[in-house]
Known about the structure:
Mean pLDDT: 42
Domain C2H2-type: 226-256
GO molecular function, one term: DNA-binding transcription factor activity
Number of strands: 8
InterPro entries: CR1/CR2-DNA-binding_regulator, Znf_C2H2_type
Helix content: 40-55%
Strand order of the largest sheet: 3-4-5
Keywords: DNA-binding, Metal-binding, Nucleus, Transcription, Transcription regulation, Zinc, Zinc-finger
Subcellular location: Nucleus
Amino acid sequence: MATKRPGDTSSSSGPQSCPSTAVRPTDTRQPGAETQETLVYMQCCGQEAPNLTERNGHRKIMDRNHQGPVFVPQGRTERVWTHPPAPQQTTTPTIPSCPVSAPYSFWSPGSVEMDEVMAAMVLTSLSCSSVVQSSPQSQNDPLPGPSSGGGDMGCAGGDMECGGGELSDSSSSGYWSWDHGNVSPAPSPSVAEMDSSPDEGLHMELEQGGELHTAARSKSSFRGTYRCLWPSCGKVLTSSVGMKRHVRVLHLGSGSEQSPREEDFYYTKISCEAPADPSPVSPLPPDPSPISPLPPDSSPVSPLPPAPLPVSSPHVPWASFGSPLSPDPDSGLQISSSGSGSSRPSSGPESAPGQHRPLSQSAPSSSWQIQTDHLYQASTPLQVTMTSCSPAPCCWTPPTVSNQHSHHNAQVVTGRCRSVSVGEQWLQQNSVTNRLTTLRAASPSLTHCSFRKGRGEAKKCRKVYGVERKDQWCTACRWKKACQRFPD
DNA sequence: ACTGCCGGGCG
DNA sequence: CGCCCGGCAGT
């Protein structure tokens, strides 16, 4: 947690949005984790922007506000990259640069879309270094799997950074996962290999795609490709028509109510003209680096794979889950909340643990999931943003957890915040729906909450119910003992 | 002044 | 043990 890199900090530069937040994420991560950042991508206003991209030795960190990229000294980056930290995120496997294997095999060659996608992918990768990423996986399994690792970030503004990460972890599937997931899958391949033959991976793809690959290289300049912005999907297609179809069929559903035009909102055109320069080219966040098709510079970069998680970097929250790296014990806290995010609605703050694997962490994660689950279709981004903003992840978590009276260990940091917001809500509303509300509401409060001082804020039965309704107090309160219902 | 809770007492 | 309350300490 503690380790931060200057660069990350810079991210905070993203001015206002949530300075504090920004920092944390970074912190959470381990140094190695940083790498992950690369993977993360942010979406803004529908567009995705890669938070980080490595290029020419510099890592660019997109400003949350998107204002400007920050550069981090390569040195660090490389290190990270070099070692495929992959392990960190268990969830996201990095694709083995070494293509050889299997990963690709997954695809079901059969579908036409696949082909298109593949082709697009290849091309993209070629032209844009990064591209490789996920597409392949996404195709196969759009969401899921790997996604966990990925950053989801749908967040709207740059703010989200953290959140994004979480999302991915937690449920992830979420939105952005695609990229990351894909990329990372493979922890395996040794870096060296990757370096040596990054292209091969591509070739593999090419096979399916057909000549594309070759052509792609030669062409190097595409007019443009279209990338699906759907949360968990990262497909890249060369034709807008195809993309529309993709969006409609896979995401909107053929019959969906969505207006015909709707698809336009779910994909973005990517122009990859710059053959050489990946960076600009790839809007795609997905940092493919893992695959790093592009031979050019990539040498070190390619290894990126580790990056998958990186996403989090921006997001503090993530850090906590820190996913991969360390299974946080702590996680319990967040986990609970996040974990079941969706499930929990009703009550169970406690149960959560199941999911989290990585997430463990905190609130943010939880928030993410929730969003994901509920908002999935709607407006994830917004919420995300919120989350990220919230200064302390902890805050989030707690609320969720606490709601139910269950008191977890989680308390640790969170303590008060949750109790406050939660408590009230709990009282007033037990309904599940509230939770979402809570989160939102909480977020602001959370901000404040960072650390509770004392009882002042923590609401106990007395505050909640008032003396008049003493009968509703928990027994402990009635007996003037430590409150059991709203423990600190 | 309120509140939260420990410590202790009573039945 | 359940129930209550005196009293301390933090706000």
